[in-house]
Specification:
3 helices; 2 domains; mainly alpha; about 80 residues
């Protein structure tokens, strides 16, 4: 009556499959945790370029206004000198 009591009918193949499934489960958990940390964490790619100093940004706006024709040459040079 108790001839198969120790392993309840599970052969070695079933134990190997169960072990592989456990490894696959923990690998999936590790991948999900790594993905969560990476997606929620700091992105170094965002810091590749330093922000423009205010004077550089002001010169850029001045150049854009001059290119659009909003200011004439004399005003452009006068404001450019002020920014230096």
């Amino acid at each position: 009556m108790m001839s198969n009591w120790q392993d309840n009918g599970w052969g070695p193949g079933n134990w190997i499959a169960m072990g592989l499934m456990m490894l696959a489960f923990w690998a999936l958990v590790a991948v999900l945790v790594a993905y969560a940390i990476r997606s929620l964490g700091h992105h170094p790619a965002d810091d590749t370029r330093a922000p423009d100093p205010p004077a550089d940004r002001a010169r850029q706006v001045l150049d854009e206004r001059f290119a659009r024709g909003e200011i004439d040459t004399d005003e452009y040079h006068r404001r450019r000198e002020i920014l230096r």
